[in-house]
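Hey,

The postdoc asked me to send both predictions to you directly instead of through the lab channel. I've kept everything plain text so nothing gets mangled by the mail client. Protein one:
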Amino acid sequence: MSFDLVVRSRRTVTPEGVRPAAVAVRGEKIAALYDHAAPLDAAEDIDLRDLALLPGLVDTHVHVNEPGREHWEGFASATRAAAAGGVTTIVDMPLNSLPPTVDVAALEAKLRVAAGQCQVDVAFWGGAVPGNVKELAPLLERGVCGFKCFMSPSGVEEFPPLGLSEARQALEEIAGLGGVMVVHAEDPALLGEPSGPTYREFLDSRPEQAERSAVEQVVRLAGETGARVHVLHVSSASCLDVLEQARARGVAVTAETCPHYLTLAAEEVPEGETAYKCCPPIRPEANRDLLWDGLGRGVLSCVVSDHSPSPAALKVPDFAAAWGGVASLQLGLRAVWTEASRRGYGLADVARWMSANPAALAGISGKGGIEPGNDADLVAFDTAASSPVDAAALHHRNPVTAYHGRTLKGAVLTTWLRGRPVDGEPCGRLLLEGP
C-alpha cells in the first residue's frame, strides 16, 4: 500500500493523546496512523523526530473585513498569517465587511472577493441583526456555520445589536433551523463611557457585571427557546458559574475565551498602548488565573483569536477613542503554549481547545484532529523554541499587536493543508457547511 505523504513524529497529538506515530496521507486525507518506525511506501516521508505534530488549528473567531475594509485586513493577508501560525481553517465574522454578511447577497459578495485569495480554508458566520430574521434560513441553507449577534453596540453602525425581544425572535428561528447563535455578551445598560484616556478608565467603563448580566440573559433565552448558543470571548471569570450551572440544567450553551485574556493582564497594559484595547477588556491577573481554571474544567471549551485588526491610525494613544481589537491570528498558538506549558497543560489540551472543539462548534467536517478520514491538516511545531514578537515581521496587514516585544515559546515550522505544505500559493477552499 502506497501513500502520497508520511509524516512521522515521536510527539504526534491525536484525539487519544500524544504518542509516537506515522501519519499516512493519501490524496487530501489522513489514510491511517501507524507506529512511528513502521516501514511505509510513500512519495514523501518526513521524520520530525521529537518535534511535535499537531492537527491544524481551527480559529472560529476571525475578523477578515473584506470586502469594504480590506485595508484593515483581507483574505490574502489573514490566511497567510493564519498558516504561519498553524491555523488551517478560519471562520470569518460577518460584521466588519461592507456589506455585512446579513443576507445571501452579502455572502455571495464575500465569496466572490475571497475566491482565489486564501492560503487556508475559510468558512463563514452569518449575522443576526434587527429585521433580518427572514434571512437566517437562506443563509444557513447557503452554508454559513451559524449566526453572530451583539447584545451591545458592535462598533460599526452597519451591524446593530439585538434587543432582548429581537434576540428571542432570532433564537426561536435558529432553534427551528437546528443552527447555533454565537453571542457578543455585554449588557449595554451596564456599560459606560470612559471618563478619560487611560486604560483604568476604559476598564472601569466595561465592568465584569456587564458580561455576567448579558450571559445570564443569553442563558435564559437559550433555555426558553431551546436554541443552541455559544458565548464569545469570555473575559470575566464572573461568568463561569452562570455557564456551569446552565450546562448542568441541560441548557445548550458553550463558551470560549481568547489568547489575550489567558496571557495578558490589566496590570501589564502600558498607558497609551491601545494595541491592548478590546471589548470586553483584558482584566486583572487574578481574573486570568480563574479563566485558566474554567478552561481546565471544561466550562470554557474553545480558545480562539478574536483577531480584530485595524490600521495603526485607528489605534490612537487614547483608550476612549481608539478602535478596540487585538490582532493575534498568527500568534495564538505560541501565546497559549507559552502560558499553558507554564501552568502544566500539554499539547493534547491545546489541540482540544484550539482545534477539535472549535471545529465541533462550527460544525466543520473533516477538521480538528489527526485521525483517519480527516483532512490532512497538520502542523510541525517546535515546542522548545523561543523568540520575541516583531509586529512588523508578522503577515497581518497592519503591524499592530499587543504581543510586540513579548517573548513567546514555540515555533510553527511547517503547516500542511490537506496534505500540501502551505507555501504562499492560494490553495485554501471556501467551506460552505450549513447545519
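Protein two:
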Amino acid sequence: MAADLDLVVRARRAVVDGAEAPAAVGVAGGRIAVVTAYDDPPPAARTVTLADDEVLLPGLVDTHVHVNDPGRAEWEGFDTATRAAAAGGVTTIVDMPLNSVPPTTTVAALEVKRRTADGQVWVDVGFWGGAVPGNGADLEPLHRAGVFGFKCFLLDSGVDEFGHLEPDEFASAMRECAGLGALMIVHAEDGRLLDEAALDGVHYAGFLASRPDKAEQAAIELVVAQARATGGRAHIVHLSTAGAVPALRDARAAGVDVSVETCPHYLTFDAEHIADGATELKCCPPIRGAANREALWAALAAGDVDLVVSDHSPCTADLKEGDFASAWGGIASVQLGLPAVWTGARARGLALADVVRWMATAPADLVGLRHKGRIAAGADADLVRFAPDEEFVVDVAALLHRNPVSPYAGRRLAGVVRETWLRGRPVGGAPAGKLLRRGER
C-alpha cells in the first residue's frame, strides 16, 4: 500500500487523535491511507514537509453558512463563499436553506440550488432543508434527497420567503423529524419576548435590550421540551447567551438529544466595546457583554457547548448601513473563523487541539460526516497548513467573500492559513468541490 501513496505530508506538529504530535500523513486516491511517525514516513510519489512554524490541521467543517445563491447572489454566491472558506481552512460547508430564492423547502428547490452550485464550489458543500409553515409533507422527500437536516425559526426569520414556526407547528415538525431520524436545527429566540420599543436608532445598548437573554432562554426551553417529548434530535444554532447553558446541561444529563453551537463573533466581541452606529456588528441573537463572552468560553472548555461555526451571513454593503433597527443582521466570517477563535483560545490557555475539536471534528460528527474533520486513516485528505504564531491585521480588501464588509476590519488576529488541501490536492486552479448528500461519501 505504501508504495502506492500519491502524497505524504510530514509535520513536526499535527493535530491527530485530539492532541498535537509529530506525524507523517500518507494520502492515496484522495483519502488518508496511513498516519505514521514523522521520522518514519512511507514512500510516496511526492513528499511535502511543513515548516517548523506550521501545524497540520484537518480541514474545518462549517455547518452554518448562508450562501444566498440563487436569488440573492449579489449578497454572496457559491464561487465566492467557497473560495473564502478555503482561504480560511474550511474544506466542507453546509449551506443554510434561507436567504436564497427559492428557499430549500422542497425537493424542487433543492435541485435548483444544486444546479446553481454545480461546477462553482472550491470546497465540498452539503445542504440543509427548511421547516416552514405548510411544508410538513416536504420533509420526508427532502430527507430522502439527502439534506443534512432541517432548519427552522421560532420567530420572524428576516426574509419573507422563510416563515417561522409557531409552537404547535414546531411540535408537529419535531414529531416528523423524530420519525425520520432527522436533525432539527433551531434559531431559538421567542419573538413574544422581544422588546422593539427598546430600539434606539444607532445606539447598540437599545438593540441589545430589544433582544434580551430571556427570549433566547425561553425558546431553548421549548426546544428541549419538544426534543424530550418526541425523542428527536435537536440542535441550537448560534448560542449567544451563556445563561441557557445550565438548562442545556441538565437536559443532556437527563438523556435529551440536544446539541449546541456558538460562533466566533460571540467569542471575540463584547457589547461594552461596540460603538453606536457600528451596524457591521449587528447579528441575531445579539453579541452580549464581556462577562457573558467569558462564560461562553468556559462552557466551550467544559464541553457544554459542542462546536463553533461561522454563521456566515453576508449581504451587500448598503444593507449594513442605517441604524440597528434597519440594518441587515448578519456577520460574514467564514474566512476568519479559525484565526478569530484561535486568537481567543490561545489567550485563554486553550490548545489548537481544542479548536480542531470545536471547528472540525464536532461539526463533522453533527451531520454524520465521519470521514471529515480529522486526520485519520480512511478520512478524506482535507488538510490545512496553518501558522499559529503568525499575526496579521484584517484587511477587508483581502477577504474573498463577495462584499468587503467585516466587523473584524483592522483587528489583529493570530494564525495564518498558508495552504488548504481538498482530498489531497491544493485548492486552486479550478473548483474541485463535491456536492454532498447525507449518508453518501
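Summary for protein two, as requested: The chain has one domain: 60-368.

Thanks,
C.
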